[in-house]
Write a structure and sequence with these properties.
The chain has about 350 residues and is of the alpha+beta class. It is about 40% helix and about 10% strand. Helix 4 packs antiparallel against helix 5 and helix 8 runs antiparallel to helix 9. The longest helix is centred in the N-terminal third of the chain and has 19 residues. The structure holds fe (ii) ion (FE2).
């Protein structure tokens, strides 16, 4: 399967992974054949891209660091948290903590799985899906940094609720399509303080979790907000969440720009390291990202072309590749797989873009 922007979808394509609403309902089941009507509707409700079945490269089972059920459950908890605050009810912190514990358990069980870009937004609402991703990415970084269970829970709760202060900002400003006025921008920049004010009132929320909301827009070089904290004056949890927040935002399609590719996102993150972001946290997050994610179509030094079907955590540049085309671009009658970690003479020379992949098929 492959990820495809909604604008490139054609009637007749088959959905490879179910699409959900942020309250957990299935919008489209996997296996459904797209019609023009479905495609139009996806665009209307804000779904940006979809996994599509691919006949030539076959259907790959892309493992996710946390299960689809857990993502759906966590997204529901996020939506419920925003709903409660909107109705002036209190947050259900016990549910939030239990949900974070569930994610931690799954991540610890799946430690050999690398991030695979399969964290696609199969939800209709960016804010909730983004919060869930930031929570997962932050926890993976925390695990790499050797945090214990209590620390991971504090980190996960703060990461999940890092933008909760946005509840106090009017939707007209949050969803404004054009440029913001200076006053509007100033108002948006207050969401860290609002988040801190909301969370610190709960006795069962660690003050450190509340500080994640407060400090996640501070910058390593002191140019962030709201307090212009510098370097180690920023709590390590907030430094981790700052990296996760930016990384996930780069990989998301936004109304004003399409998503960056994995390589672009990693390059931008490295460029920000030591300026915007704590370099230790950047390195820890990147160590969890598969450089050639499952599903990437690559060319080898032999000229053969194939698709990455599995990654080797110890040798990130040497995944397992299923060869589909030979060096003369002829499709093989019998595909075979090579484990590059065991073949030191063969290298990946490049990965292919979507247009090139389509031209191979034609
Ligand atoms: Fe934020």
């Amino acid at each position: 399967m492959k990820r495809m922007p909604v604008k490139d979808l054609q009637p007749g394509m088959v959905v490879a992974r179910a699409i959900f609403t942020s309250d957990g309902r299935i919008l489209l089941h996997s296996g459904i054949v797209l019609t023009a009507g479905y495609i139009g509707r996806l665009g209307q409700i804000g779904v940006n891209s979809v996994y599509i079945r691919d006949e030539i490269f076959g259907d790959l089972d892309i493992p996710d660091v946390v299960s689809e059920e857990t993502r759906i459950e966590t997204t529901k908890v996020m939506r419920d948290s925003f709903d409660r605050l909107e109705k002036k009810h209190s947050l259900n912190i016990q549910i939030v903590k239990q949900t974070v514990d569930g994610i931690i358990d799954e991540l610890l069980m799946n430690r050999n799985i690398m991030l695979n870009l399969s964290d696609i937004r199969t939800f209709d609402d960016y804010t909730f899906a983004h919060s869930v991703n930031v929570c997962i990415l932050s926890l993976m970084t925390g695990i790499t940094m050797g945090y214990n269970h209590l620390q991971l829970n504090e980190l996960g709760v703060g990461a999940l609720l890092h933008d909760i202060g946005k509840i106090r900002i009017s939707l007209d400003i949050l969803n404004k399509p054009g440029d913001l006025t200076r006053e509007e921008f100033m108002e948006i920049k207050r969401h860290p303080e609002y988040g801190f004010e909301i969370l610190r009132d709960y006795n069962d929320v660690s003050l450190l979790s509340s500080h994640i909301a407060f400090q996640h827009h501070e910058r390593w070089d002191g140019q962030g907000y709201p307090r212009s904290l510098t370097g180690e004056a920023i709590h390590p949890y907030a430094r981790i969440v700052a990296v996760a927040d930016i990384y996930d935002a780069l990989l998301a399609d936004r109304p004003y720009r399409p998503s960056y590719s994995l390589n672009q996102a990693l390059t931008i993150l490295k460029r920000m390291s030591g300026i915007y972001l704590d370099p230790v946290c950047v390195t820890a997050l990147i160590s969890n990202v598969a450089i050639y994610p499952i599903g990437t179509v690559v060319e080898l030094s032999t000229g053969d072309i194939g698709i990455v079907v599995d990654v080797n955590r110890e040798y990130p540049a040497r995944p397992i590749v299923r060869i589909v085309f030979n060096a003369r671009k002829k499709r093989l009658a019998h595909v075979h797989e090579v484990d590059l970690s065991k073949l030191s003479t063969i290298l990946i020379t490049r990965s292919l873009g979507q247009a090139e992949i389509e031209s191979l098929k034609g």
